[in-house]
Amino acid sequence: MPTLVIVGAQWGDEAKGKLVDVLGSQASLVVRYAGGNNAGHTVIAGGKEFKFHLIPAGILHPGTKALVGSGMVVCPKGLLEEWDRTIAQQSELGDLIISSAAHVVFPYHRMLDALEEEARGENKIGTTTRGIGPAYQDKVARIGIRMGEFVCKKRFPRRLKEVLEVKNRYLALFGKEPLSYDEILAEYTAYADRIRPFVRDTEALVAEAVEAGEKVLLEGAQGTFLDLDSGTYPYVTSSHPVAGGACLGTGIGPRHIDAVLGVCKTYTTRVGSGPFPTELTDELGDHIRTIGKEFGTTTGRGRRIGWLDLVALRHSCRLNSLSGLVVTRLDILSDFETIKVAVKYKLDGQEIDYLPGDVEVLARIEPVYHELPGWKGDLRSARTMSDLPAEARAYLDFMAEYTKTPVAIVSVGPDRAETIVANENLIWAK
Ligand code: GDP
Ligand code: IMO
Ligand code: MG
User: Fold this and answer.
1) Residue 288 Cβ < 6 Å to ligand 1
2) Ligand 2 pocket, 39 CB below 6 A?
3) Among 116, 256, 398, 424, which has the minimal tally of Cβ within 10 Å of its Cβ?
4) How many CA atoms lie within 13 A of 426 on its CB side?
């Protein structure tokens, strides 16, 4: 049963969107399993740039079902704008399906996200202010409004009234005027009318595809170290980006996951606050940000840049039980004399080779680097491993050896075509 998870192995923006598009052409079903429009997944195909925040990046393949999974929180306005924009860019798309169990993001979630961030002051998380944390808070508190209720003409007005009463009391604590029930109801009823045809119970549909042995691709969002449990808490998102989240956010049991590919950059980036052991706060970091055009797809913020952290990546391989690595942006590291990778940390004078869990400890660690020779030239036309310079291959071998995880795919540019399959057997097989 070829069910494959694509997971972000670092702090997000590893190029999951590109990979889901590349492999989505072979899948009959692509399900995004976590997060909301805090994500920004870029696909470059046929000379066009597509940006997905909520719609699975597999939608560009007609004949593929693209499912917004039950683990997601969905802003209806954002979803409709994305749908209209995508269909204007490409008229033939896959079938969009939305799980009736996904939660809906409302204006009060976005307001509370911004207000809670402001209240955190110096300790702010640096959220995308898309209302993600507050929407998941409602889910956990069991007062969230799910897609199934949202598109039900009878239930939605009653549920909105109930929840808005509570939210307006909470907004008052921040000195805010109450939000108007009538205005939200009118605006969101219009969204619900457009979204209704896409919403359905999806567990059976997913189970049947898995049982029939169809190729099913589970698209992660964010990254392993932004995971609510496994990430650098509290500087995390409010969902489960790790591979385990793919079971929760789609309704597939763990025995039906056949392969897990972890997408990672040849260096590291992070957006927002929180520990980042290999961060480069100097000119070199600025240089990589410029040549790599490292600015957020969702917020436009400059991404923090650092060398590849192999200690963290190995931890990620374990947390996600990765069967293979997808290494992206190899092209960006061309023309460096030498390239550094962190292979250990120093903590209070002692060397350690694991990633500590506590942010205060993480803030004290110093990376210990290993230097590898760089390579020269433009890699973007490479299509096989043998097209790559020997030093680039040695860099990939070092990553695989250190993490004990083989390289399945290498990306040498943003376009769909700029992809090298290093080991076909690792992609859909066990
Ligand atoms: P995601 O959130 O993991 O889907 O990643 P993003 O789309 O936010 O960020 C990845 C960025 O890198 C996008 O702008 C992609 O077009 C771009 N990209 C993907 N793969 C490569 C690559 O191999 N080389 C270069 N230079 N850019 C890439
Ligand atoms: P993709 O799917 C990178 C970060 C935010 C912030 C933290 C919490 O494109 O890789 P939130 O709005 O989720 O409450 O913010 O998580 N963050 C991301 N960083 N890529 C993403 O998604 C992210 N989604 C959230 O910057 O630090
Ligand atoms: Mg992104």
Assistant:
1) no
2) yes
3) 424
4) 18
Residue from 21, 41, 103, 240 carrying the catalytic annotation: 41
Query: Cβ(130) to ligand 2 under 6 A?
Result: yes
User: Which pTM value belongs to this model?
Assistant: 0.97
Residues 251 and 269 in one domain: no
Residue 77 sits in the same domain as residue 216: yes
pLDDT in tens, 30-77: 999 999 999 999 999 999 999 999 999 999 999 999 999 999 999 999
Any idea what the CATH number is for the domain that residue 154 is in?
1.10.300.10
271, 356: one domain: yes
Domain limit, last residue, from 168, 195, 222:
195
Give the up-direction half-sphere exposure of residue 146: CA atoms within 13 A in the CB hemisphere. Answer: 17
Crossing angle for the helix pair 155-173 and 181-195, to the nearest 10 degrees: 130
What residue owns the CA closest to ligand 1's atom 28?
414
Does residue 359 share a domain with residue 281? yes
Verify whether residue 41 is a known catalytic residue: yes
pLDDT digits (tens, 9 = 90+) for 345-393: 999 999 999 999 999 999 999 999 999 999 999 999 999 999 999 999 9
Closest CA to 274 of 366, 365, 363: 363
Residues 348 and 389 in one domain: yes
- For ligand 2, atom 15, the nearest C-alpha belongs to 127
Q: Are residues 31 and 82 in the same domain?
A: yes
**Does the C-beta of 6 come closer than 6 Å to ligand 2?**
no
Return the structure tokens found at 220.
Answer: 């992660």
**Same domain, yes or no: 275 and 240:** no
Judge if 272 and 301 occupy the same domain. Answer: yes
Looking at the structure of the chain, the number of domains it has is 3
- pLDDT of the residue at 252: 96
| CA separation for the pair 34, 20 (Å, rounded) | 14
Question: Can you state the angle between helices 390-403 and 310-320, rounded to 10 degrees?
Answer: 60
Active site residue 201: no
